[in-house]
Amino acid sequence: KELGAKDSTGTEDKSGPATNPAKWPGVQALQALIVREKDEDLPKLHTLLCEGFVAVYLSQ
Q1: CA-CA distance, 56 to 8, in Å (whole number)?
Q2: What would the mean pLDDT of 7-22 be, rounded to a whole number?
Q3: Average pLDDT rounded to a whole number, residues 5-12
């Protein structure tokens, strides 16, 4: 099997989200952080989100 190849057994769930993303846990807190991001005392939200995305991507 090649490195990074995915199994195609059909066990993966290919359906989309069943609920509105605005109702997901943490979305309101994230929106509040985006509004407060303009305050220079806070860490840059964009950098934090990018680091989180890269960490999740590399962990797969």
Answers
A1: 22
A2: 69
A3: 57
Per DSSP, the residues of 2-56 read -TTPPP-SS-S-----SS-GGGSTTHHHHHHHHHHTTSTTSPPHHHHHHHHHHHH
Would you state the pLDDT for residue 55? 92
Q: Look at 38 and 1; give whichever has higher pLDDT.
A: 38
Residue ranges per structural domain of the chain:
21-59
User: CB within 8 A of 44, min separation 6: which ones?
Assistant: 37
| Start-to-end CA span in the chain (Å) | 17
Categorize the per-residue pLDDT at 1 as very low, low, confident or very high, splitting at 50, 70 and 90.
very low
How many angstroms separate the CA atoms of 46 and 33, rounded? 10
